[in-house]
Amino acid sequence: MVAAQKSTMTRGRLDLARVDVTVPWAVINCVKAQSGGTVFEAVAAMLWQCRTRAVVGHEHDEDSPAPLAFPSDVRAQVGATAGYYGNCVVVQMVPATSHAVASGGFGDLVALIRQAREKVPDLLVSGNKGETEGEQPELRYNALVVVSWRTLGFEAVDLGGGRPARVTWHEERPVVPGCVVCPPCGAEDDGVSVAAICVKPEHADAFARELVTMGVRVAPSSLCSASP
Question: Where along the sequence do coiled-coil regions lie (predicted)?
């Protein structure tokens, strides 16, 4: 299923900065109270809006597409048996314009994400067309991919030296702008950690400012790093 959707991925490596952030639970709960969304929907909506605001006016006009994409597990829908660990994943697109994302309320953005999640089963019978008719557009710099690792259990793995202090994501050759919502960090889980490799170095400061305005904590050292 993933292979069938590879045409949506842009070709070639992107030079993107890494920004490590923590979204405090107080901020997430505030967004959830406004929108009625899940943790994933709330965090994805914040990242989507902050990133779009950071790049609008630099790379795109307000009417240009600024889609969100996220992978979704469809084991239950295809009847995968217990213990099957092969790929049962589809990529869902949430279409929107830069203006709609940058100026919309969290309730509106969460509603778009939720509607797309509800339509994931349709991908299994629509030839992987997703939310729009025909072929899905390629994921270029105007797009954002958000992936959640919070329910995979990576933080509970113990290979003999104890559980990891932190589980994060590192991508040496990014081909699409992406964010990974990382697993909790044990007793110090005071928010949701996100590894964001989704903006060009010249947009990293603007992205960080948008996040801080929302109450998100940005690791100071992350603004000096870019993916190799």
Answer: none
Range of the domain at 123: 3-224
Number of domains in the chain: 1
Q: What is the pLDDT of residue 115?
A: 94
Closest by CA position to 67, among listed 15, 6, 141: 141
CA 208, CA 217: separation in Å to the nearest integer?
A: 9
Backbone angles phi, psi at 145, to 5 degrees: -110, 130
Divide the 228 residues of the chain into consecutive groups of 10 and give the mean pLDDT of each group.
47 84 94 92 97 78 88 81 76 93 95 93 64 57 92 82 80 84 74 93 94 93 52
Number of other residues whose CB lies within 10 A of the CB of residue 174: 16
Place of tokens 């909790």: 184
CATH at residue 67: 3.30.559.10
* Residues paired with 24 in a beta bridge: 191
Angstrom distance (rounded) from CA 51 to CA 198:
8
Q: Which of 160, 161, 167, 211 is nearest to 185 (CA)?
A: 167
Residue 29: partners with Cβ closer than 8 Å, 6 or more residues away: none
Q: What is the DSSP letter of 56?
A: B
